[in-house]
Structures are given as C-alpha cells and as structure tokens.
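Revision sheet: structure tokens.
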Amino acid sequence: MADVMRLLLVSLRFFLVLTTAIIASPCSAKEKPKTSVADLRYGVALYHYYQQDYMAALAELMVADTRDGIQGHGDNPELIAGGVSLAFGMQNHAENGFQEILQDESRPQSVRDAAWFYLGKLYYTRGDWNAAEQSFARVSNKFKPALRAQMQALQINIRIRNNNYADLTLKNIDADELRSWSPYTFYNLGAAHAREGNFASAQQFFSELSDIDITDNPVRRKEQWALQDKAYTAIGYSYLAEKKYAAAIREFTKVRLNGVFANQALLGYGWAAVAQEEYDVALKPWQLLRTRSLMYPAVQESLLAVPYAYEKLGAEGEAVNAYQTAEELLTRELQLIRDMRATLTEGELLTLIGSEPLPAEEAKTILRGNSPDEGALTAVVTDDGQNWLKLDSTSIIKTRSAYLNELFAKNAFQTAVLDLRDLLRVQTLLQNWLPKLDAYNELLLQKQAARSRQEQQIAQNTVAQQEQKLRAERDRLAQKLAQISSSENYMALADEETQELYARIERGQQTIARMKAAGQDTRELETRIKMFGGILMWRAAQAYPAQLAAQQAELNTIDETLAQIAKVRQNIEEISLTSMDIQPTLARLQVLQKDVDAQLSNTDQLIAQQSRVLRHQVDGQLAAHEKRLNNYLAQAHLAVARLYDAELRRQPE
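Predicted:
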C-alpha cells in the first residue's frame, strides 16, 4: 500500500516543472508563438492549472480528448495531461501519453529533451537510479545549458551512489559546464572519497570547493559561504583522521563562528588540540561551544569534553563542577525531548500537516519567535514549498526545533509530508462528493415519483382526445372510400358543381316520370336529360381516378399521423412507467457511490498509514537524540562518581 501511496501522490511537483518548461520552450519553425489561446478548452485547463486546481485541469483535458481534442496548441495539452496523470499516480496513462510524444520523431527536440530530463529527475527523487540514468542518457546535446548542468550534476551523483566514480578527477570535470552545480558536485565527490578512507582525494575536492570565488548575489553568497564552511570542516576532520592535527586546526579556524558548521569545527578544533596534549588550548573552543544551544550534538559533547580537559590539567574540582552542570543540563534536555515525543502524536502531526500553508515571511516570523529556546515545538507549513518549480529545495514544513531540523531537512521526509497533504486533499474531495451524489440520487427519485403522479393525466390529456377524434374520422373516410370503390360511384367523388348539376338531372328525371304518368309526351325531354346526364357522368368518370387517389392519400396521411401519435404516447407511457431515462442514471449513481466509498476508505487507510510512518520517523529522530543524551548523562554520572571515589581514596583513613 505504501508503494501505491507514493505512486498516487508524487507530485504535482513533476507536473508543474515539466509543463512550465515545455510551455516556455521555443516554438517550432512551423508554429508562431501564441499570445492567446486558440482553443477555449485549453484556456479553461490553463486557468485551473494556474489556480493549482490540477484535478479540474486534468478533467478538462480528458473531456476535450474524448471529443475532438484541443486544436492549435501543439504538444502542450498532451504534456500537461501526461504530467498531471503522472502527478496523481496514473503511471500507465501518463507513460502511454509520453511514449506517444517521445516516439514521434516529428515532435520538437526541445519537447523531447524536457520530457526525458524531468522524467529522469523524477526517477532520481524516487531513488530509481537506473531509470533516471537511462532517461538522462536520452537528452540531446542541444538541451538548455542551465538544465544540462543540473542533469550532469545528478548523473555524477548517480555514479557516486553506484560506486562508479573513481575515474572522476578535477582534471576531467568541467566546472564551467557544471555552472552553479560545481560546488555541490565537488563536495559530494569529496565526501564519497572520505567515506572510503581516501582522504587525499577528498581533500583535493574539498579544497577546490573552498577556493571557489564567492558570488555577488546575496542569496547565493550565503549559500556558498555555508558550502565553504562545510568544506573546511570536512577537510579538518579528514586531517584529524590522518593525525595531522596542526593542519586540522588550521582548517577548523577558517570556519565562520556564526555559520551552521561552527559547532562541528569548534569541537574538532578541541579534539585536535587534545591529541597534541594542549588541553588549555582545547578548553577555549569547547568553553565557547558549551555556551551555545544544547540542541546540537557538538554542544552536548562539549559538556563532557570541558571537564575532561580540566581533569587532564589536574583541576579535579572544576571538573566535578563541570560534570554536575552537565548532569543538570542533560537532564533538562532529556525531559524536553520526552515531552516532545509525547506531544507529537499521529493526530498532532496530521493536524499540523493538514493546516493551511502560511506565506513565507509570516512563517519565518513565527519560526523566529521571541523565545530563545530552540527546542520549542514550533512547526509550520509554508506556501513557498508549494512552488514545484523549486524541486531541488522544496521545503513545505519547517520547524524551529534543532532536534527535528535534521529530519525535516531530508528530502524523503518532505516528500512524505507532500504525499500526506495530497492524500488529505483527495480525502476532502471524496468527502465533498458523497453528499453531492446523495443529492443527485434524491433529485432523480423525486423526478421519478413526479412522473408516476402524472401518468393518469397524460392518459387523459388533449393529445389522447385528439387522437380518438382523428381515428373516428379516419374510420368514416375509410368506409366511404371502400363503398365508392366497390360500386365505382364516380359521382360521389365529383366536384361540387358537377354533383349539383347531376342532382338537377335526377330531379328532372323525377319530373319527367310524373309527366309521363300524366300522359304527356316526354320523349324530347328524356333525350335531352339523358344527354346532359351522360355528359355529367363522363365528366365525373374522368376526374374519378385522381379524386380517388387524393382521398386515399389523405387517408394515408391520417394513418401516419395516428402512428406518430401512438408512438409518442407509447414513449411517454414507457418513460412514465419504467423511467427509462432515470433508471440507468440511478444505477450509475449507485456504482459511483460505491466507488467513492471504496476510494475514501482506501484514502483513509493510506492517510492513517502515512501518519504512522511520519510519526515513526519523528519519534525515531527524537529517540536517537534521547539515546545520545542518556549516554552523555550516564558518562557524566560515572565521571562524577569516579572523581569522588578517587578523592575518597586519597583521603587518609
């Protein structure tokens, strides 16, 4: 589960570094630089990106991708989507996207170089040295020099970790090409040789570092001073290991007294003097050291070193007093650490890490505080650590406690804190979705109930009545046409004028019949009326086929209209009775609710696990300090007892 957690939450860090570098990279020859977005969806995604709402940015890009993609922005949308996917642990999705980009030879070289570099850097921060080395090897020589310098420094670090640095000397390392990374490289190589006991080579690299010209930049100058102090201290201890005590003292004296490495230098100075049996000389740096904060191991050691020097000088009384003072101070520090261990529970750490980040200046003010006690448990989450562009110096949580500074300065600890903060964000997001899904489900159920209540109304509405009326008219017309067609009644479909004239003919025939019955001569009238009747019948017969077809077409139109009405009514009834458009959504909501519940449960477990991991790290760090203090305290007790015993033995019985 820890692996899943690391994959799920590494980042946002990689995403911002990668996308910013790509967006800032030069356009290809075929593409002019853009001053505005060509696709609104890309603009929306960028808006969420710059608001640090990365999930919304990813969602916008994924929605666009399911449609017709984003047009007019080259590789940027794909790189952003891949970066965010990787940031949220969707490694397979991100890898597929990057593979498509990196396997396409038509992509700009600047895009490919940046992708390989930042992938390698991400692998480096995870400790996957082989993957990092392979990614770095794919970056071209045309890569941006400033970033290439950083990459070469990381490549040298990988060689150090793989114990493959023996051939790296000052002659074959180009300091100009390494740029601002050369001091770190020299120190890392010097430290590597020192660990192997090769002090001569270590001293060469440390000396090269100490000889670097200090920059005029105030921020960089402070950093380089610290590096040089570190180099002087390291050279001093290497000479101390070689028993070159005078040379060691010479290097220790080069360290600034207000620097962060002054304590180690003062301690080493004293032991180098002791090695030459110059105990009065050793007392000077140690007495200065013991006036400093007891948070630091060098100061704690000086509590025992000072009375040791007094003993060597024969001042047993001063030694006893110094040992007793050490006992009091060490006992107080032990209680402080025990209180901190009791206070820094998993819940307390979770509350601290989940708090809102403070602006850098406000955090600095709080950490500086008014209390001179550097052991105070003051820790804050800062917003300057949210700038993922500072991947090398990201520090999201800071403390004024010297006991925890060493732990908090570690990249692994800061990464774990970032992972936990991201998990807390995911937890909040999932918790917010649960009531939303419940609300959507309730709305759909209410909609379904409303439809059921309207079912009877739909069956009795105007549409149904009109359908019945139209169907009755259709039946009458169909029956009429059937009778006309079977009897070939031409006159039934004749126009109005013809039918009116034919009605007169029929009335004339009735009149002639009455005249004939009265004995009148009607032969001429019968001939004429027969002629006129025939003309009208012929006229009706000529129009009969067209009129019959027109009537049949009207009947067909009515049938089609009835069919459409029937289909609409059927759809309405089906929707009302079965809620065909609601049931699938309800089923999907139920699946989503189960999925969100499962994801929330998993996230809760990961948060609990990560909290335990951090608590274990913090408690382990404090336990190590407590163990060392207990050891010093025990030595102080034994030294006091030994001196008292020696004094008693000297007294006459």
